[in-house]
Amino acid sequence: MKLNNSNLSRAALAFAVLAGAGCASTSYTSAGTYVPPVNAVVVGNGASWPGEPSGVHINVDLSERKLYLKNGDAVVRAYEIGVGQPAYPTPEGNYSVRRIVWNPPWTPPDEAWAADKEPQQPGARNNPMKVVKIYFNEPDYYIHGTGSISSLGGAVSHGCLRMAPEDAASLARYLMEHGGEARDAAWFSRVQGSNETTTINLDNSIPMHVAP
Predict the structure, then answer these.
(1) Cα separation of 62 and 83, whole Å?
(2) Upstream peptide bond of 109 is cis (omega within 30 degrees of 0)
(3) Mind giving me the DSSP string for the chain?
(4) How far is CA 67 from the centre of its chain?
(5) CATH superfamily assigned to domain 5-39+80-211
(6) Is the dihedral of CA 91, 152, 199, 74 positive or negative?
(7) Signed CA dihedral, 58, 82, 28, 191: sign only
(8) pTM (predicted TM-score)
(9) CA 88, 118, 143 angle in degrees (round to 5)?
(10) Residue 119, class by beta-carbon neighbours within 10 Å (0-12 exposed, 13-18 middle, 19+ buried)?
């Protein structure tokens, strides 16, 4: 995977988003609750579905190529994503987010498309898993940061959901706070500085719905 300077810069900015650097007034409510930065992704019909749960949850619309982070009926933020290609579709259905892995390594799966790939350490330039993995259908399917920003909005992955690194980081932080595993800015700074893999198991799982 070849990354240009723009993509590397976006990956480097991911933890600045986490720490609220330069945007503390827009990343927290008056009560100190973390709020993902505002973006310009248009909210489509896939933001809601009949019977969706209350509280914090995720709706994914594969045809729209969008992920909606919601709290009750309110859309907290909409994200542009990359979804599975026709030969490797992202599975549809209802899932739960229970595990988040920061600074994940990458082990090539036992698949033909990965036969010539080498394992990659956390933070390595050629590691396709940027910043964080958010599992929704373990062990094979998860949301992750990508260095291939130009692929967002397409059916491009081998089944997982791709996000810009800073978006994946922002989403993970919000899920941690609302899943009973909140951390302060110093914790995220340590995660960034160590480049060590850190696994978080949420006390309260977050519902996730994937629609065609």
Answers:
(1) 7
(2) no
(3) ----HHHHHHHHHHHHHHHTTT-HHHHB-TT--B-PPP--PPP-GGG--TT--SSEEEEEETTTTEEEEEETTEEEEEEE-BEE-TTSPPPPEEEEEEEEEES--B---SSGGGTT---B-TT-TT-SSEEEEEEEETTTEEEEE-S-GGGTTSEEESSSEEE-HHHHHHHHHHHHHHTT----HHHHHHHHHH---EEEEEEEEEEEEEE-
(4) 9
(5) L,D-transpeptidase catalytic domain-like (2.40.440.10)
(6) negative
(7) positive
(8) 0.82
(9) 40
(10) exposed
147, 130 Cβ separation under 8 angstroms = yes
Look up residue 24 and give its two tokens: 């503390």
What's the confidence (pLDDT) of residue 194? Answer: 82
95-114 pLDDT, tens per residue?
A: 999 999 999 999 888 888 88
Contacts of 115 (CB under 8 A, 6+ apart): 108
Structure token pair of residue 102: 């920061």
